[in-house]
Amino acid sequence: MGVWQRELITGLLLFLALLVVGGMTGLFMPLALLLTVVILMRQLFQINRFEKWIRAGGRAKYPKTYGVWEEIYYHVYRIKKNERKRKKKLSKMVDQFRQSTEALPDAAVVLGANDEIEWANKAAREVFGLQQSDKGQRIPNLIRFPEFIRYLKSGNYNEAVILPSPINNRITLAVRIITYGAGLRLLLAQDVTELKKMERMRKDFVANVSHELRTPLTVLKGYLETLQDMDDGESPLLTTSFQQMQGQTERMQHLVDDLLLLTRLETQQKKTECVNVPALLNQICKEAETMKGNASAPRLQPVGGCPSARIQLSLETDAHIVGEEQELRSAFTNLLGNALKYSAEDSVVKVRWHRSKDSIVLDVEDQGEGIAAVDIPRVTERFYRSEVKRAKKVGGTGLGLAIVKHVLMRHDAKLSIVSELGKGSCFSCHFPLKRVCN
């Protein structure tokens, strides 16, 4: 029999006894009132005892009682016991997590909704100089680098920010923020000192080698030009050899120039000036006529509307952008040069400067051989050239699109490529609207 059934039967028996005694004595109402008061006082006593037990945490053995209150105490006690087990298990898991994160070589800091520190591992305390007492402090008050504060406020955590350690400027950190939960963020910092050192060594090596190669190349080129002037043309083998040597020397010269340009892009500080892009594009298109360096090149027309023109320039906006003119000239010239080089001489190359919803865009579209889908992600790598069978050999250093990529990165811009084999390619440079300066 259930406890509620026993309580109900007990209540019915008391009521029947009340009817009998009340009928015999004629005091039914006073006895009924007395019984009600007794039952009410008992319930109030049980409620008061239960509240005290719960207030104490329900840890001790529950008071001895009977009936439905015994069942209530038992169920609550069992729930509390299970809850303590879960808490113990969760606490053990948290301890294991903290021990594992303490052993991580990378710094980890849990940030609250207001950038306050909620937890940090051992590596974070070492590279950021954090203390146990810093819990609850806002991270910008402890790491005061302007680039880090801008990164933290931006809300755009797709890329890491590079900054020195606040306690040791010889340590370079790559800091990244990952959002999770309700307003929580995890700050991760990786020591990239050796990686940056190797990168600097690579840049210095390329710069030094490129610089040292310029002098012997200049001397070699000068002697070749002298020998070509002395060539009377009586020996076809000698003439061909001079021409091939001259071509390879010029190729090496272009390679050295491109490597030095890439080094400058990677190491020089950014310059800011308002660049008149429409005028720059007009000038580049006019200069493109002499790109191939021969009189047989197709006639170029730097304005749109001429169906026989090789280049069609469409200026749909007069927007100027903040940037470095010579860098932009290099990037735009490389894009236009590639479009002309990898498409038929009787095809049209379209250059379009226009405004989209959220950016200013330069499109360079050709009707050339196109790029395979597997090659598109890699064409901006240094020296990478797609394996395409061509009717004639196309020269180049393999650094043009790498230069374009670095120039756009320095201008907060992105390069997108849409291409299809046999139908042509469209290279688009997307500049953020914040770069507009006119």
Automatic annotation (TrEMBL):
Keyword vocabulary terms for this entry: ATP-binding, Cell membrane, Kinase, Membrane, Nucleotide-binding, Phosphate transport, Phosphoprotein, Transferase, Transmembrane, Transmembrane helix, Transport, Two-component regulatory system
Q: Does the keyword Nucleus apply?
A: no
**Record localization:** Cell membrane
Report the coiled-coil segments.
Answer: none
| Family matches, as PROSITE patterns | HIS_KIN
SUPFAM superfamilies from the UniProt entry:
ATPase domain of HSP90 chaperone/DNA topoisomerase II/histidine kinase (SSF55874), Homodimeric domain of signal transducing histidine kinase (SSF47384), PYP-like sensor domain (PAS domain) (SSF55785)
Protein name as it appears in the record: Phosphate regulon sensor protein PhoR
**Whose protein is this, by species?**
Methylobacter tundripaludum
